[in-house]
Amino acid sequence: MKFGGVSVADGAKFRKVGTIAQRFASRGDQIAVVTSAMHSVTNTLVDAANQAGKKKKDHVRKAADDLAERHRKAAEAAINDKEILERTLESLNATCEDLRNVLLGIAHIGELTPRSKDYVAGFGERLSAPLLAGVLEDLGLKSKAFTGGEAGIVTDDNFGAAQPLMNITVLQVRQTLEPLLEEGVIPVISGFIAQTQEGIHTTIGRGGSDFTASIIGAAVRADEVWVWKDVDGLMTANPKMVKDAKMIEAISFAEAMELAHFGAEVIHPKALECAAKYQLPFRVKSLVDCDRPGSSIVSETKVKDGDVVKAITNISDVDLITVSGASMFGTPKLPAKVLQILTEEEVNVLMISQSSSEESITLAIPKEDGSRAQNALELSLLGSKQVREVSIEASLSIVAVVGAGMKGTPGVAARVFTTMAREGINIRAIAQGSSELNISFIIKKKDTERAVQALHDDFKLGG
Ligand code: ASP
Ligand code: MG
Question: How far apart are CA 203 and CA 200, in angstroms?
Fold first, then answer.
């Protein structure tokens, strides 16, 4: 079971998570739990690390104090037994003390390295796991907290997005956790963090707790990995936008991955990739009603006749950057260069399309990164003879139609575009990956809701 930051946002929610574990443990299930940091704590930590790098000692002292206070309050609200509470607070205090020292150390030198940034970023999970283990004990269960590294997850030293070394990880995690599971102990593992073979702390990428859950599930040969959310499950469209959006009962890993890339805040793509590789069934379960089956994500789902499209998703607020110039024709190096410039700027490219005349490349970029991306491209490309202009257009959104059944089914694109034409919605750019799992296109932001609803109706996805 994996619980995200929103599920452990405060003491009451920790308690709720505890009762869910208790409910399934009492049914006789062997359970391992992976937890994220409390909501927004990782952002606070990353910010504190950056401020420390700028020698802002007062800022980091306050950040460390606030975090200590927030965790203390949560523990006091979630744990009743005096002795368990005291023990938990002691462990939290020691970890908070360590955090404070590290931050002040960084602030003293005024140098933040990728390694020390990872060390700081992982403190949220180092605090939430023992807290949750304390809550489980308070509920009468046997529990033990582990950091990802202590559980046996080993990575390379690519700080910020370290890659697990799966063979050794699987062996170590199995050795650490399986005996405990057999004894009915519920291990609580910090998501997001791991360590190198030398024991240096790493993180496996933002949102990485889902990935931790896959890794642990693969290692202990779990029957299923359950990711708990405060939504019903995976939906055919954003329910805030489409009233009759329906829960998806079953979806394939490949489809779920498309959803993850296209704005539906579901499960981290790395988690799905890992689960697919180890044939590990995933389930998105609802915190609101824990007996509902939720959405299951499995290797292959049979595509029902006519069931070509599974979901319509969207990313609102994208900028469209167009790099154009007649002499771009036949210069394969240019697209590569464009992407390289954006990678160096750490800009996340959501979609790329190039006309076959090769006179322009169009890129969809999150709004926050738009002008930075344009500046970087102008600086590096405008001097060259090939590029005439780098233009930017704002207030757009991406809509994506997702489903494995589209593969080899002619006419889906035609249907999408006919629907848009009927609605009078102008399409600015289009992309389809060769996997044929999604068709994505760009429209004006103000048309998003209408487009998503019309497609949802047209493909009869509603309940
Ligand atoms: N706490 C980490 C983050 O905010 C990992 C996670 O929540 O999955 O990115
Ligand atoms: Mg997440």
Answer: 10
Distance 206 CA to ligand 2 centre (A): 8
Query: Looking at the domain that runs over 2-223, which CATH code has it been given?
Result: 3.40.1160.10
By three-state DSSP, how is residue 293 classified? coil
**Ligand 1 midpoint to CA 228 (Å):** 14
Ligand nearest to the CA of 207: 1
The secondary structure of 403-452 as a DSSP string is -GGGTT-TTHHHHHHHHHHHTTPPP-EEEE-TT-SEEEEEEEGGGHHHHH
In the CATH scheme, what architecture does the domain 311-458 have? 2-Layer Sandwich (3.30)
Domain boundaries in the chain?
A: 2-223, 311-458
Contact between residue 427 and residue 416 where contact means Cβ atoms under 8 Å apart: no
Flag residues of the chain having pLDDT under 50: none
Percent pLDDT > 90 in the chain is 77
Cα→Cα distances 408→238, 304, 404, 436, Å: 27, 15, 9, 8
Residues with CB under 6 A from ligand 1: 4-5, 36-37, 42, 124, 191-192, 206-209
Q: Characterise 278 by phi-psi region: left (phi > 0), alpha (psi -120 to 50), beta (else).
A: alpha
Q: Rounded distance, CA 189 to CA 128, Å?
A: 9
User: Could you read off the pLDDT of 251-268 as tens digits, one per residue?
Assistant: 999 888 888 766 566 789
Burial tier of 192 (Cβ tally within 10 Å: 0-12, 13-18, 19+) = buried
Q: Do domains 2-223 and 311-458 have the same CATH topology?
A: no
Q: Tell me how far the alpha carbon of residue 210 lies from the centroid of ligand 2, in angstroms.
A: 7
